[in-house]
């Protein structure tokens, strides 16, 4: 049994909220550079150039990459041999978000009730997904999610008979409907299988996988590649102003499902596909 | 075409702009997003005066991140314009000259743009750090309690924008996508 103080979780989440909002991961920066080189539209190329410049300014001058610094989504994988000591775990996570957003000059975008809409002024609460895994470590992923793209995300409860073609059509429909609203070039997270909520969580999780890492399941890898190619033929382009770079990657996660169903969730993320990962 | 223009625009300048043009704006613009639009609508329903005179003005759909010490503003990119669609025709009919945002607009908004010789511009979504460099001064002028959603008056210098819907109703989101679409037609 290993003891981890929840204060340590708070401190790390605070730092990770700030880190994720100012620096993209290396795989994201790389795929953006490659896109700028390959883009066929002159305006699209210019926009991608501005987005790269934006990343440099964000890092050098400590200005958030995007003013929508997101709702903080936190994935916690907690080893079953870990003993957590201190304040309740969710409180510790939210305290980390609070400190990160207030001290890090990040925008407070969370309202305490979805219909009464009063801002909580510290960006809490976050959305916390906890799973218990073997071992004695705690893996934390902080993924601040902007809502321009979140609003364009979709769930499709397909029929088994819709099959592979149905899945492709669902993903392409979501991406085309999103168009310029989701700040393309996008990263497309897809969850296939499970239940209504399971596929949505998988789609969100898929966005945290490096964009240069394909699925280890051969047919899923092929599907990811085929969908990326099809999306990039849509013409939507950078900023939705036309071009050959509409998405940077399609990441798909799958899970067993029921004999009667084929749930598909498409979680769209803009080019500011932020996340920070740490293992304690 | 590429232009450098003073804002607020004159009607002549607005009519000069064509869908697809690149324009650098210098002068004064106002921010307003969801909550401020809702309040403005409620104000109009009560037949009261808006907190700012919007005639000929430019509204930027933007809610910034907080400014660090010594800086006028934090990250400051556009938010999705379609959420303001419900409120926009009324503001255009009251004389609003231009809007800056990102993303598609409804037919009702397009019609109101044409009817009022207005223009809809896009700034690059997700380039909030870069765009903040074009903002030289910012002050809250209404709805202070809304925090990031308050109405701010901004002084901008060479703020980069792209004309999406011009005063004749041409829509770059429709025309540009067709140009680069290489899907097989079924």
Structure, briefly:
Chain A has 280 residues and is of the alpha/beta class.
Task: Write up what this structure looks like.
The complex is a heterodimer of chains A (280) and B (186). By secondary structure, chain A is α/β, with parallel strands linked by helices. Chain A has two domains: 2-20 and 65-145, no CATH class; 148-272, 60s Ribosomal Protein L30, Chain: A (2-Layer Sandwich), CATH 3.30.1330. In chain A, 40% of the residues lie in helices and 25% in strands. The longest helix of chain A has 20 residues, at 42-61. The model of chain A has no long low-confidence stretch (mean pLDDT 97). The model of chain B has no long low-confidence stretch (mean pLDDT 96). With 186 residues, chain B is of the alpha/beta class. In chain B, 25% of the residues lie in helices and 27% in strands. The longest helix of chain B is centred in the first third of the chain and has 12 residues, at 34-45. In chain B, a hairpin with an 8-residue loop joins β6 and β7. Chain B has a single domain, classed as Fe-S hydro-lyase, tartrate dehydratase beta-type, catalytic domain (fumarase, Alpha-Beta Barrel), CATH 3.20.130.10. The N and C termini of chain B lie far apart (35 Å).
Shape of chain A: globular
How many strand segments of chain B? 7
Strand proportion of chain A, as a percent range, falls in 15-25%
Counting structural domains of chain A, the number is 2
Ranges of chain A where pLDDT stays below 50 over 5 or more residues in a row are: none
CATH class of the largest domain in chain A, named: Alpha Beta
What is the strand content of chain B? 25-35%
CATH architectural label of chain B:
Alpha-Beta Barrel
The low-pLDDT segments of chain B are none
Run of helices and strands of chain B: EHEHEHEHEHEEH
CATH-assigned homologous superfamily of chain B: Fe-S hydro-lyase, tartrate dehydratase beta-type, catalytic domain
CATH class of chain B: Alpha Beta
How many separate helices of chain B? 6
Reported for the largest beta sheet of chain A, the result is: 4 strands, mixed
Distance between the termini of chain A: 14 Å
CATH topology of chain B: fumarase
In angstroms, what is the radius of gyration of chain A?
Answer: 19 Å
**How much helical structure, as a percent, in the residues of chain B?**
25-40%
The gyration radius over C-alpha positions of chain B equals: 16 Å
CATH names the topology of the largest domain in chain A as 60s Ribosomal Protein L30, Chain: A
Average pLDDT, all residues of chain A: 97
């Amino acid at each position: 049994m290993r003891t981890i103080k929840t204060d340590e979780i708070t401190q790390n989440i605070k730092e990770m909220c700030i880190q994720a909002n100012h620096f993209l991961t290396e795989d994201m920066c790389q795929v953006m550079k490659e896109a700028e080189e390959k883009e066929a539209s002159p305006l699209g190329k210019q926009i991608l150039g501005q987005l790269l410049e934006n990343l440099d300014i964000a890092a050098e001058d400590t200005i958030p990459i995007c003013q929508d610094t997101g709702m903080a989504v936190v994935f916690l994988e907690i080893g079953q041999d870990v003993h957590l000591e201190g304040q309740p775990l969710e409180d510790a996570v939210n305290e980390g978000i609070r400190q990160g957003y207030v001290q890090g000059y990040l925008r407070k975008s969370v309202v305490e009730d979805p219909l009464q809409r009063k801002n909580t002024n510290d960006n809490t609460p976050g959305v916390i997904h906890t799973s218990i895994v073997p071992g004695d470590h705690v893996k934390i992923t902080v993924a601040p999610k902007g809502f321009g793209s979140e609003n364009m995300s979709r769930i499709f409860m397909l029929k088994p008979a819709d099959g592979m073609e149905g899945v492709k059509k669902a993903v392409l429909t979501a991406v085309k409907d999103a168009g310029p609203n989701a700040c393309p070039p996008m990263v497309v997270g897809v969850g296939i299988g499970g239940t209504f909520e399971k596929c949505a969580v998988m789609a969100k999780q898929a966005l945290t996988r490096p964009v240069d890492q394909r699925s280890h399941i051969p047919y899923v890898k092929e599907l990811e590649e085929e969908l990326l190619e099809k999306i990039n033929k849509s013409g939507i382009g950078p900023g939705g102003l036309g071009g050959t770079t509409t998405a940077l990657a399609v990441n798909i996660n799958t899970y067993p499902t029921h004999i009667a169903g084929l749930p598909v969730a498409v979680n769209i993320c803009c080019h500011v596909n932020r996340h920070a990962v740490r293992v304690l | 075409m590429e232009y450098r223009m003073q804002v607020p625009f004159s009607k002549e300048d607005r009519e000069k702009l064509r869908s697809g043009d690149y324009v650098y704006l210098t002068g004064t613009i106002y921010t307003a997003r969801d909550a401020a639009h809702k309040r403005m609508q409620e104000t109009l329903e009560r037949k009261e005066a808006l907190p700012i005179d919007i005639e000929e003005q430019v509204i930027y759909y933007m809610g910034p991140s907080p400014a660090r010490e010594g800086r006028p503003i934090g990250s400051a990119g556009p938010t999705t314009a379609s959420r303001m669609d419900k409120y926009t025709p009324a503001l255009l009919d009251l004389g609003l000259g231009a809007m800056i945002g990102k993303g598609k607009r409804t037919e009702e908004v397009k019609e109101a743009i044409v009817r009022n010789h207005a223009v809809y511009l896009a700034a690059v979504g997700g380039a909030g750090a870069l765009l903040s460099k074009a903002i030289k001064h910012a002050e809250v002028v209404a709805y202070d309690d809304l925090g990031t959603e308050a109405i701010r008056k901004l002084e901008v210098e060479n703020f980069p924008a792209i004309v999406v819907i011009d005063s004749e109703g041409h829509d770059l989101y429709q025309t540009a996508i067709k140009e680069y679409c290489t899907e097989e037609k079924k």
